[in-house]
From TrEMBL:
<dbReference type="GO" id="GO:0099095">
    <property type="term" value="F:ligand-gated monoatomic anion channel activity"/>
</dbReference>
<keyword id="KW-0407">Ion channel</keyword>
<dbReference type="GO" id="GO:0005230">
    <property type="term" value="F:extracellular ligand-gated monoatomic ion channel activity"/>
</dbReference>
<dbReference type="InterPro" id="IPR006028">
    <property type="entry name" value="GABAA/Glycine_rcpt"/>
</dbReference>
<dbReference type="GO" id="GO:0004888">
    <property type="term" value="F:transmembrane signaling receptor activity"/>
</dbReference>
<dbReference type="InterPro" id="IPR036719">
    <property type="entry name" value="Neuro-gated_channel_TM_sf"/>
</dbReference>
<dbReference type="Pfam" id="PF02932">
    <property type="entry name" value="Neur_chan_memb"/>
</dbReference>
<dbReference type="InterPro" id="IPR036734">
    <property type="entry name" value="Neur_chan_lig-bd_sf"/>
</dbReference>
<keyword id="KW-0812">Transmembrane</keyword>
<keyword id="KW-0406">Ion transport</keyword>
<keyword id="KW-0813">Transport</keyword>
<dbReference type="InterPro" id="IPR006029">
    <property type="entry name" value="Neurotrans-gated_channel_TM"/>
</dbReference>
<keyword id="KW-1003">Cell membrane</keyword>
<feature type="transmembrane region" description="Helical">
    <location>
        <begin position="288"/>
        <end position="311"/>
    </location>
</feature>
<feature type="signal peptide">
    <location>
        <begin position="1"/>
        <end position="18"/>
    </location>
</feature>
<dbReference type="InterPro" id="IPR006202">
    <property type="entry name" value="Neur_chan_lig-bd"/>
</dbReference>
<dbReference type="GO" id="GO:0005886">
    <property type="term" value="C:plasma membrane"/>
</dbReference>
């Protein structure tokens, strides 16, 4: 007799022996539950987290699932406390039709045979234990990325029997973990924790309310890596842009290179993070931050353009003012008409204003405005005042003392600090609110 034949005899002996240790009622039907209001309890040993797929919104778990229920129609013949029954995919007795609502795929672990067992206790309680890799579909929202906290509810129930026939609940010690579990499974991006909901949860499937035992999986993202890889560099780029305010406006190449390089670096960072982060229907938290940092640098570049324009207009105004002073001193710079002279305007063109009994010419420079006029109409007076105000603003921006740069050097950091405080308070508060509402 060969080895294969001896193994077959051993397996046959165990099968016969297990049948001799218990009996079932003669009218037993494996298609019928033991009665109304059957109590099915669950426990779960979570061995490890295989992975989290953000693009597919899935979580892969390696678990050992234990299902308990009492069937008075089956009992042990002797005083043995428990009996291990032979695992069969088509058992001779009734088992609950367990349904996991968020289950995407389930694969029973196999070595020499399926890792599964059936045990009968002396109080007619049956326990099925099965080891499997399950993939859970989890609805994820990445608007708060990377401050998001994903909460996934997994419901264990029956797809056939309503809560009038069968109730699912967790056992007194529902979850067990490996010895190195600690505060949670730590993945490269998440810290995963598990909590059972001991409340009576009900789901309506179209033919009545079905009782479920709910497991809540919480995925808390590791924020430290994002702070070092995204938030800190972008903040440093914004601070570097403030250095342009202390560079002399006449040094155009140095100041332009600093601002344009910083702006392009932030745009490249934004594009990289946007492509590598999960998709969302709205702007994500980190995208709001990077766009705001880019706008701060862009506004610093716009401020420099205003300074350059003011400097150019300031030089033009000083040149025209010299011509005007010479004309008022006796130089005939206007037409042959007596009393006529040139006045520079906003865009550097000259208009001839003739003096008369009803109108007096208005003269303005960057130091003071001398107005002696009785304007013929209010619209002309408003237009003249607007021109004078515009000239003073431009001359202020183009002042050789760098007045606008001094104001910007204090205003930009203040605005960025206010934005940062509002940003972190708003998004952290929203993240905690959603986390608390999901756990209630």
């Amino acid at each position: 007799m060969g080895p294969s034949a001896s193994l077959s005899l051993v397996a046959m002996f165990h099968l016969v022996r297990s049948k001799d240790l218990y009996e079932m009622e003669t009218e037993y039907s494996k298609n019928m539950p033991p009665g109304k209001d059957v109590d099915v309890s669950l426990s779960l040993h979570i061995n490890r987290i295989s992975g989290v797929d953000e693009s597919k919104e899935e979580i892969a778990l390696d678990v050992f699932l234990h299902v308990y229920w009492e069937d008075p129609r089956i009992r042990i013949l002797d005083n043995t406390s428990q009996v291990e029954l032979t695992w069969d995919k088509d058992p001779r007795f009734w088992i609950p039709d367990l349904y996991i609502r968020q289950l995407r795929e389930m694969k029973v672990l196999t070595l020499f045979q399926d890792i599964a067992s059936i045990r009968l206790y002396n109080n007619s309680t049956l326990r099925i234990s099965i080891g499997a890799t399950i993939i859970i579909k989890c609805d994820m929202d990445f608007v708060l990325y990377p401050l998001d906290v994903q909460t996934c509810a997994v419901d264990f129930g029956s797809y056939k029997y309503t809560m009038m026939d069968m109730k699912f609940r967790w056992r007194e010690d529902p979850l067990s973990f490996p010895s190195d579990f600690g505060d949670g499974f730590r993945l490269p991006r998440y810290v995963v924790s598990f909590v059972t909901d001991n409340r009576s949860n009900v789901i309506y499937y179209g033919d009545g309310n079905h009782s479920t035992a709910r497991l809540v999986i919480t995925l808390s993202r590791e924020l430290r890596s994002h702070l070092l890889e995204s938030y800190l560099p972008s903040t440093l780029f914004v601070i570097m842009s403030w250095g342009s305010f202390v560079v002399m406006p006449e040094v155009v190449p140095g100041r332009m290179v600093l601002l344009v390089t910083t702006l392009l670096s932030l745009v490249t960072m934004f594009d990289t993070i946007r492509n590598n982060s999960p998709s969302a229907l709205e702007l994500k938290c980190i995208e709001v931050w990077l766009i705001s940092c880019t706008l701060f640098v862009f506004l610093a570049l716009v401020e420099y353009f205003v300074v350059l324009f003011g400097m150019r207009y300031d030089k033009h105004w000083r040149h025209k003012k010299g011509d005007l002073d010479r004309g008022l001193g006796g130089v005939d710079s206007g037409p042959s008409r007596p009393g006529a002279f040139n006045v520079p305007t906003l865009f550097g063109t000259n208009k001839v204003h003739a003096a008369s009994d009803n109108n007096t010419v208005v003269v303005a420079d960057n130091a003071n405005v001398t107005a002696k006029a009785q304007c013929p109409s209010s619209s002309a007076a408003g237009k003249l005042r607007f021109q004078l105000l515009t000239k003073h603003v431009i001359l202020y921006c183009g002042s050789q003392r760098g007045t606008l740069d001094q104001v910007s050097l204090a205003l930009f950091p203040l605005c960025f600090v206010v934005f940062s405080v509002v940003y972190w308070i708003s998004y952290i508060g929203e993240s905690r609110r959603k986390s608390l509402s999901a756990n209630v």
